[in-house]
């Protein structure tokens, strides 16, 4: 059963399609209007990261650093030291990809109030190919102390994440995507940093069950897979974990207890990201069989987003197959 | 320009040597750390904290203070010693440098110690932060007379991030930014001209739209005048290339790149028994007041 707060069209085969990065742009502009301490930095990707509306509305609070992500991290830290709330946006492959050490030392160890937006994350970047497909960013950000890591499911969550990050005192990483992806939530859906949300509750009458855990823009595929599994008489639930760090262990524990097996779904390497975080937590607190879906220790390639998601086993059919196999193995 | 008298110069020179003395003692006690940079920057740090800066040791977070951003964090013994003598924390605490539980971390950690403006160590990051601070100040107060002093090494200029930051500072015409380069001519692996030649350095900075001055980094009056001129530059960021003698103050260490990253007692004097090395280092410290005796420790 779909959570009542979700978008009604997300419960059909024809959801609205909007890039999650648009939510960053909307949230940034809104935050800028509410709080004049908000400043934005861009490394020559102002339009595509959706920083442009802010830059046009508040040119005096916008810094164009040129193609220089390492400098951008330092400049943002310096601005935070003077009381600003800097948002620095680039493609995730370059920030935090290229400037990881600057983020680690100058922002995180320095406990600097900087918000880092990694746009064009995941393989759904598509035709640009593997050089531009950040599928390691959650891992490299999750291991840094002081850093909050969020992968919103859609445009609405991205906007909320931006606004909440403004109020949160400390470094935050927010991952958004390039492609048009399904709108799953609504402006009214609950969202808080560090809080996982049940998006789909399993039919308790079915004898076997699988718990699907998603992060980022694959939440819709997880939901459609749950619907399909229940048609096949397998109970399925969906837990959406937008905040990978700090992980909502309590919600994860309850969800894990309620299902026979778990499947994690992410547009990221299966090590170090959502699958890694879930496996680490559960192996310590309540060991459970977990099938991790994601990129399996390889690089991406050019292609349309949907072709790539199917190829790397992240489309609805692949999630359903993996879940069926997991349930079947569990009952053997 | 801030005028200083001959008496001021003498006072500052004596203070700088007091700080050098502490640096040697700190490193001797820590048994690790960098020697050359801290010793050769002692005059400049003294001039800044005891003459130039608008700051208040009893209120380290005073909003209107000038900012000193140490980019080459490894020379922190000179920053720590200067801050202690300026009243930010007890001088006795200097001897905890690099020890477990100390506020004086091997490289500066902003949240550990009052008076630190940033966390640094990995080279090339401080100038970006100084640029960010200077930009933020200009947003809030375009007519501010608050200055942002960024101190870098010369070997550090090998880092690409420095040149990214220089480009942005030039583009933004940050006249409140004053960069001071410790041009001591050495880095860990050797002389800078061998490891990675920097010259013509002044021309490089000029081409990035900086106002450039080259000064004797041990001449207190010349440095004071250069800082005064840098403050007066209207529409450009400034850089002062401070020519210094690596390890200034200790005859046997001076100009030798092998003292960049070694503490007294662990340097290149391998023909001398180790037990004697520590004594040598201390006995050879040259100060205006005379040579320090190991008996004083």
TrEMBL record, chain A:
Keywords: Thiamine pyrophosphate, Transferase. It comes from the Bacteria. Residues 18-183 form the Transketolase-like pyrimidine-binding domain. InterPro entries: PDH/Transketolase, THDP-binding, Transketo_C/PFOR_II, Transketolase-like_Pyr-bd, Transketolase_BS, Transketolase_C. Its cofactor is thiamine diphosphate. GO terms for molecular function: transferase activity. Belongs to the transketolase family. This is Transketolase. It comes from Candidatus Kaiserbacteria bacterium RIFOXYD1_FULL_42_15. The lineage of its organism: Bacteria, Candidatus Kaiseribacteriota.
From TrEMBL, chain B:
Residues 16-265 form the Transketolase N-terminal domain. The keyword rRNA processing does not apply. Its cofactor is thiamine diphosphate. Keywords: Thiamine pyrophosphate. It comes from the Bacteria. InterPro entries: THDP-binding (IPR029061), Transketolase_N (IPR005474). Belongs to the transketolase family. PANTHER family: TRANSKETOLASE N-TERMINAL SECTION-RELATED (PTHR47514). This is Transketolase.
């Amino acid at each position: 059963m779909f959570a009542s707060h979700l978008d009604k069209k997300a419960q059909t085969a024809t959801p609205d399609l909007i890039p999650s990065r648009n939510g960053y742009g909307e949230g940034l502009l809104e935050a800028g209007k509410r709080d004049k301490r908000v400043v934005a930095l861009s490394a020559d990707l102002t339009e595509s990261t959706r920083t442009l509306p802010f830059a046009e509305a508040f040119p005096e609070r916008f810094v164009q650093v040129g193609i220089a992500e390492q400098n951008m991290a330092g400049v943002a830290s310096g601005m935070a030291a003077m009381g600003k709330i800097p948002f620095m946006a680039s493609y995730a492959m370059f920030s935090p990809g290229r400037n990881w050490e600057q983020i680690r030392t100058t922002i995180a160890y320095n406990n600097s109030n900087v918000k880092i937006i990694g746009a064009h994350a995941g393989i759904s970047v598509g035709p640009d190919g593997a050089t531009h497909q950040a599928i390691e960013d959650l891992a490299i950000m999750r291991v840094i102390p002081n850093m909050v890591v969020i992968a919103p499911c859609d445009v609405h969550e991205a906007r909320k994440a931006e606004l909440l990050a403004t109020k949160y005192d400390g470094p935050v990483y927010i991952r958004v995507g390039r492609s048009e992806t399904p709108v799953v939530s609504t402006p009214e859906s609950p969202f808080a940093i560090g809080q996982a949300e049940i998006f789909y509750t399993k039919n308790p009458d079915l004898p076997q069950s699988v718990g699907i855990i998603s992060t980022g823009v694959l939440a819709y595929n997880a939901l459609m897979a749950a619907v399909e599994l229940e048609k096949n008489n397998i109970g399925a639930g969906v837990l959406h974990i937008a905040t990978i760090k700090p992980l909502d262990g309590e919600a994860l524990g309850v969800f894990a207890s309620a299902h026979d097996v778990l499947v994690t779904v992410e547009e990221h390497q299966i090590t170090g990201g959502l699958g890694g975080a879930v496996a680490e937590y559960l192996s310590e607190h309540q060991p459970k069989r977990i099938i991790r879906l994601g990129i399996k220790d390889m690089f991406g390639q050019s292609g349309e987003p949907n072709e790539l998601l199917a190829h790397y086993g992240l489309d609805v059919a692949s999630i359903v197959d993996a879940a069926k196999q997991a349930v079947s193995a569990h009952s053997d | 320009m801030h005028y200083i008298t001959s008496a001021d110069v003498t006072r500052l020179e004596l203070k700088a040597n007091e700080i050098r003395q502490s640096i040697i003692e700190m490193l001797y006690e820590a048994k690790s750390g960098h020697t050359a940079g801290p010793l050769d920057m002692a005059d400049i740090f003294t001039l800044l904290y005891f003459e130039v800066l608008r700051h208040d040791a009893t209120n380290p977070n005073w909003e209107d203070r000038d900012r000193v951003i140490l980019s080459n964090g490894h020379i922190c013994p000179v920053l720590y010693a200067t801050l202690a003598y300026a009243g930010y924390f007890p001088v006795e605490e200097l001897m905890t440098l690099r020890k477990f539980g100390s506020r004086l971390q091997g490289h500066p950690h902003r949240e550990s110690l009052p008076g630190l403006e940033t966390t640094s160590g990995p080279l090339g990051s401080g100038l970006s932060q100084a640029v960010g601070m200077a930009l933020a100040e200009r947003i809030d107060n375009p007519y501010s007379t608050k200055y942002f002093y960024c101190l870098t090494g010369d070997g550090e200029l090998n880092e690409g991030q420095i040149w990214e930051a220089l480009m942005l500072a030039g583009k933004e015409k940050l006249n409140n930014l004053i960069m001071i380069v410790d041009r001591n001519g050495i880095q860990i692996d050797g002389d800078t001209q061998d490891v990675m030649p920097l010259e013509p350095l002044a021309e490089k900075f000029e081409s990035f739209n900086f106002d450039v001055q080259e000064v004797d980094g041990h001449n207190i009056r010349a440095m004071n005048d250069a800082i005064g001129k840098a403050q007066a530059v209207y529409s450009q960021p400034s850089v002062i290339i401070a020519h210094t003698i690596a390890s200034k103050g200790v005859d046997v260490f001076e100009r030798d790149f092998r003292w960049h990253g070694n503490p007294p007692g662990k340097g290149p004097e391998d023909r001398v028994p180790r037990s004697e090395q520590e004594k040598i280092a201390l006995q050879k410290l040259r100060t205006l007041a005379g040579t320090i005796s190991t008996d004083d420790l």
